[in-house]
Amino acid sequence: MELRDRVAEEFDKRKEGLLIFAFLLGFGFFINQGVEIKGLYMDDLYLWSCYGEQSFREFVFPMGSSRFRFIFYLASWLELFFLENHVTWIVPFNIILNSLISFSVYRIAVRMSKRKLVSLAAAVAYLLSRMSYYQIGQLYGLMESLGLWAALGILYFLYRYVNGKNTRAFLMANLLYFLASFIHERYMVLFPVLVLGLLFGAKERFPMKADDEFKAEREQSEFKGGRRVGKSRRRDQADHAASKLPLFFLSAGLFGLIQVIRLFTIGTLAPAGTGGTDVADTFKMADAVGQAWEQVAFVFGRNSGPDYLCIQTYADSPWNIRMLIMGTNVVLAAAVLIFLARMLFDRGMALAHLKTIVLFLVFIALCIGSSSVTIRIEMRWVYVAYGAALLLLSYMSSIMGKAGILVFLYVGLLFPVETYYRSYWDNLYLWPGQMRYNSLAEETYEKYGEEIFDKQVYIIGNTYDMSEFTAETFLKVYDKNKKGKNTKIQFIDSDFDMKEIDEGMVILSEDPGNNAFQDVTGFLKKQRINRAYGSYDDNWIDEHAKIVFMNGDRDTVILGCYYPGTITGDQVCQIRVNGKRMPDLVFTDNYMVYEIPSAPYQMVSLEFSCNFYVANAQEKRGEENLAMVVTIKEE
């Protein structure tokens, strides 16, 4: 009973939090419905191939590559180990992870604002964001999610340290900084936030021993004059500054350690850029400033740039969406003004509020700056700044009084905006490719199961520019036991590149209008040869039969005709080609060759009318008797 009571008590304590998480998880699945991953490609497929072909050490600790993200690689190794070949589990996994992050946003916002409903609204806004496309829709989204989670954790623990908590919060911020730097190297830029937090930090209160407490009490009782008290205060300030030096050296040493590790593992300190570029080669100050302002606009709901990176620009959006965005901006402006007014009247806490605001703004500025130095802006990089902005809004609501309702108004106006942009996620650069490879998975592994590994997959043409690596690796993802014989996809110019289409083939054609593939194997078989009546798959025909097929790249159709009976010279078969009677086939031997002129790649209709059949045949398939075997020969 005691254990049961403890469990019940613990559940009762956490019941509210569990209900909040369940709500956020349900909302996460609801808002992301329709997003799916069935096939891997590009970076996701390369990540899987490394997992499948490298040892644990090689995968988690790659030496000599352009990036060293061992924390992310460890997390992805664990994820892929758990998922195995269940590619469709990636999106649910991503949704659960992002819901956990939103719950963290809720918990942090509650501690900052002391308002649960406001904090819940911030968590919902986080999940709702159009910027989550990469976190949800890609295997590599794990990297962005973990990096964002760690970065927001750094901000939270520094907030706690600045607002009078103990050294443990600062140490946690440093630990998360180390982890974040090896999830994605752009988070190295947050080092100044650690220093700023240290400068803003309140006086530490270290626990004193009994002798120290007695000494302190005696000093306070003996010296109550203003002069001695002043000296004591100055000494406290000096001690406080001295106590921060080890923490500063810790952070500086940690930053140095990160650089040493990077230099040792990748051979350089310069971070790699986007799309295989090098930041040192592509950086331009003017471009960086412009891209930084673009990211600020993204945080305020105003998309800019090409559609394949921003979904749809603010200028091209419908007027009602633009009006709603303007409405959210007005609400945010009102919230800022109310907060500033309240802060100025609350002089006792004004400095503390100012420190917190500066900490948040510097964090956001550094996150935006780190994403502005490369060749383009992707919304997924702005997501962390947006998450921090939501936490800042929650913090501001703590002193806004009844005006905190503005947070709900902001989220209410935001909902139709975000859902509108989400409906156009297929404008983004990664979506068409993902749709194609989802379709490829549907037409291969999903349709044929394990049998696909005993078949050879062919694709007619290659207008999608599928790489050799993708062709070799795509189907291996589903081959759990690595026993597939024909996992490499091959390309053909035409189905007539094969003399015949047998059961060991799967032929696909591209469907560019729908960013998809189509399985045309059955259609091509029927197109190759349609046994209209009196004709059978083993090439036997009845006394009267019809075969329709498409000629290949030849100008002649050659028939091989075999009659197993006694040849008397009276065995005659009338043949019509596309309704036109041809010279009769007269058997002078058991096997005869019959040639028919025909244009290449044209439909040919053959009708047979035989005055003979196989006598005493043990098998009769239709109403008439079997007459002979007819094969369409390939030159």
What is the structural class?
A: alpha+beta
| Total DSSP helices | 23
User: Spans of 5+ residues with little confidence (pLDDT < 50)?
Assistant: 204-239
Q: What is the number of strand segments?
A: 13
- Span between termini: 86 Å
The main β sheet shows up as: 9 strands, antiparallel
pLDDT averaged over residues: 88
Gyration radius (Cα, Å) is 36 Å
Helical content (DSSP H or I, runs of 4+): 40-55%
Shape: elongated
**Amount of beta strand:** 5-15%
Describe the structure.
The protein is of the alpha+beta class and about 625 residues long. The protein contains 23 helices and 13 strands. The chain has helices spanning about 1-30, 40-55, 55-60, 70-85, 90-115, 115-130, 135, 140-160, 165-180, 190-200, 210-220, 225-265, 280, 285-300, 305-310, 320-345, 345-370, 380-395, 405-420, 430-445, 445-450, 470-475, 520-530, and strands spanning about 455-460, 490, 505-510, 515-520, 530-535, 540-550, 555-560, 570-575, 580, 585, 590-595, 605-610, 625-635. The strands form two sheets. Strands 5, 6, 7, 8, 9, 10, 11, 12 and 13 form a nine-stranded antiparallel beta sheet that branches. A four-stranded mixed beta sheet has the order 2-1-3-4. A hairpin with a 2-residue loop joins strand 8 (about 570-575) and strand 9. The termini are far apart. The model is unreliable at about 205-240 (pLDDT under 50).
